[in-house]
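Weekly structure sync - notes
Attendees: PM, LS, DV (DV joined late)
Agenda: review two folding runs queued last week.

Item 1: First target. Sequence and structure tokens pasted below for the record.
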Amino acid sequence: MEDETNIGQRIYDLRVERDVQQGELAEAVHLHQSVLNRIEKGTRPARDIALYFGVSADELLGMPPRQTDDLRLTPIERHLLEKFRFLDRRGQSMVRHTIENEYDFLLDEQAAEREQQKRDA
């Protein structure tokens, strides 16, 4: 496992790459900015940072990726997924049905718009 300095550097790099200010990240993960600064410098262990960026702890630690889909969830998507997993079979079935219906409706709407554009052209 890599030391905290490398983890802190990865946190810093993620912040810069995603244009997140240190104070913004600190507030989002409920840390004082000075604590986050020490994490980035490697003088304090990293906590809850991977969750904020939507990366796995393995990725934050620089470990090779596991064989998973390359799907990055936003915080709201992660929150909804946690709620979905808590539902029983009936509840999950209802959610899946609603999503499929809404998705199909959107696709039909887009197809109709394309057809109208062809007719207008």
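Item 2: Second target, run right after the first with the same settings.
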Amino acid sequence: MNQSASEITVTPARDYGNEVGQGWPVVVAPVPGELLSSWLHRLAMANGIPPQYFGRVLDVAVGDWSAKLDRDLPGRILNLLVERTRLPTEDIDGLALNRDPLARLRLRHNSGSGDPGTSTAQFNRLQYCPVCLKEDLAPYFRRGWTLATRVSCFRHGCRLRDHCPTCRGGIAPVRQNRLLPQHFCVWCDADLRKPTLPAEYNVHRLERLLDDLLRMHVAGHGLHGRTSLPAMLGTVCFTFDGEPKSISRLPIRDRYLFFRQLTEGMMPLQKYSEHPAIELWTRIALAASKHSDLVASLSAEILSQITPGTKKRSGHPDLTALQRAIIRLHSNRRTSLATTTPGN
């Protein structure tokens, strides 16, 4: 088509800001239990922006911007997200790990590249259950997966993973520079949902006991005179590959091995670790074998109290005996290190 320049007219498009107002075109509702960074990545992609560049929209530093917001969500960013998504403040703030009573047991953020071509390739950033991601309509990462005391999926019974099964690169959705869902590796594009092995029964039982103890700690968090259970569990250093590290700095492979060693009566501890914390880990490991019995006893006792017409008492040990056992288990807690302020 021949057409002179003078015959071409250009009509200015409407200003984007005026079109959408103060809100973003697409709003993604967070899933209960979702991690803030996971929701931000999904929000970015829904609005046509790869996660790697969405930090600029929020006016936060580039790099691993979303992992930092998980641990520290500034008020100005929270207000911006509320303004642009029109979601309730508490719904967004509840995704972050601010004011976290379990902070000492959250997996530490790794500042390395995570690229399989570098020396930091084996260090974890996030861990996940491949079956959960496969079942998700839109794959997302859970807050519970950030706990170092979690090595398996309670729903599917399989082990968690903290690396790509193909290239073994770190899990870093924030590095994604294309519009791809979170179940694709940012380094090699492989699907992250390759199945893992089932967790061993004894390991899973110990993990369940730890989870129950931490839930009780969170329920009583903030009471004066209480020693932080996460602080004690996170104090001990474990020696793997000749280097002492706290559990929050161990990759999933070493943490799973550590749990298995605990169930077998071994304790790969650094010799200079604080004694009360070592004893606490040891007692929890010993109590794990009786965990199902304790839960059954407690459940039977509660049901006998609330079931109408129930007169027959359970033959299981009463709650007084259970309380004495718990007191003995935590008898040395007050001599531990000072409390730190670490939700599930």
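Discussion on item 2: The two ends are 64 Å apart (CA to CA).
Action: LS to circulate a short write-up before next sync.
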